[in-house]
Automatic annotation (TrEMBL):
Sequence ranges assigned to domain Fibronectin type-III in this UniProt record: 179-316, 437-545
N-terminal signal peptide: 1-26
Molecular-function GO terms, alphabetical: heparin binding
Gene (name only): Ndnf_0
Keywords: Glycoprotein, Neurogenesis, Repeat, Secreted, Signal
Protein name: Protein NDNF
The organism's taxonomic lineage, starting at the top: Eukaryota, Metazoa, Chordata, Craniata, Vertebrata
Amino acid sequence: LKMSWFWFYLPLHLLMVACLCHSIKAPTTTSQRSFQTDLFNFYHSLILADGKETTVHLLKDIPKRYYFVLEEGRALAPFTITVTPCDVPIEWSILVHKASASFLGKAARGDHDTQEVSKSQKAPSMVSTIFNYKGNSVETYMGMSSHSALYMLEFLSTERDTHITVYLTTDTTSGHLYPELPMDPRIDVIGIGHTTVTLTWKHSPSVLEHRENIQYCLLVNVKHNYKSLCAAETAIRSSGMKLPPTLALSLSPYLLEPQQVMILSNSELSIINKVGSGEVRQICMGTKNTYTVPNLSPSTQYYFDVFVVNLLTNASAAYTGTFARTLEEPEPKVMELKDGKVIQVVLDGKKQELYSLQYQARHKKIQFTFQLCHGQVRVHITKNGKTVASENISGLRYFSLKGKLLDTYLVQLRSTEESNSSVKVQVSPHFHKPLFPLLPESLKIKSFSKLRTCNSVTIAWLGTQEESKYCVYKKRIEEDQVWMELQSVDRCSGPESRHKSEKVLCKYFYDINLQRAVTTETIKGLDSGTLYLFDVYLFGPSGIPVRYHSKVVKTRKKC
């Protein structure tokens, strides 16, 4: 009676060890002695859950062990174990102790039979290593087992603290936790450009069977390939960045960190992680198995990894990664600049290509003139290979430079917007004969609200100390046209592009005192409650106009 009460109160895991120890003979090998010694410390270890992915944290040089006993009911029970290293290579092995595990099952249920104990004591036992592996690849062990066997999994990291995931299942009839890979899991590179790489891969059987719950996610970086999704997550985190639990599912804007940029277009979601070692780009494209990666840098080697992700279980499988080097950027075509000649350059904002102009100086002093017509443009000027000027320009900009005869100047232009930009360029040694007129401090047009009436408005603008011609134009517009009119204006175009009916007047004026170099004009004959766009053009000695910033004014509705 006392003995039966002892078994009742003994903790389950100690009961299993105590029962198993009855069946263990004197150890004959080092692995057997280690295994049997560890059984006495069973309460320090963990039972591995069946049918569930388990995250295991490993400390450097400290082994960690998990156990499992396969359930009774079948003479041979199939099982699979999948281990995914999430960082550095690890060592792991499976050991089996073939003994009367059926007694363990009875002990766990409280069915204690002294004859069973006696049989267990007499039953032969054997400890053996049935699998071991060292590395950082995802490995799966598939086996068949007698139900009278106790298994131990041992994990060890010798490089540093790390973590892994372990998945044990004995149910081979239901669906897989991990999506399936095709027979050929390679990623094929089918196209390489200066800034793009096109990839394709064979469909996962899981996509064909469960299309609504499966998607492909692509990882792009410049360091190396990743053998699992959790390895990629760990690498990004170790770069000093916090990430949501999984790359594949961290797709909500509110989960993004300041170092992340999210782009959503054409049902594809991209997240760019700006880490210290460069960009790590992740793109989830649904079930498409061909993708062109855009916006890459020329002459750069990139590594590409494709993961097929189960959206219900958050589990993933990795295709065999690949890499490709983008093509070198072609040498930009160089156009020669000639003294005094004006050229207008249109820059493609989408391609972000450089436009190059070259000039060989025939004088020691020269002047570059840039007039921004549309968009935003960056100018970079070098003299004999050394940078002498670099900035974004707006309006009209002069660069006066000194050097030697036959110095070579290279001007490089590019649009800083995705839309097209345009700019006029001139180089000249003649400072006393400027191409463009002398400009006032500001090119803004001012309107006076108190002077507005139902049929007139009053505007003002600044002049200069040089007598010049000013022409005023007006255009009637609708409320929904304001933004488009202001954005699409070509600041280099002159009055020749305007309809004759839009011309209001032309006048000459100047003032030696700049503080008094202001002129006003009242435009009459307007409709009440109507929006008008007003423009002023300034003409210099060369006849080339400079356009003031457009001004939108609305007449009063009631007077």
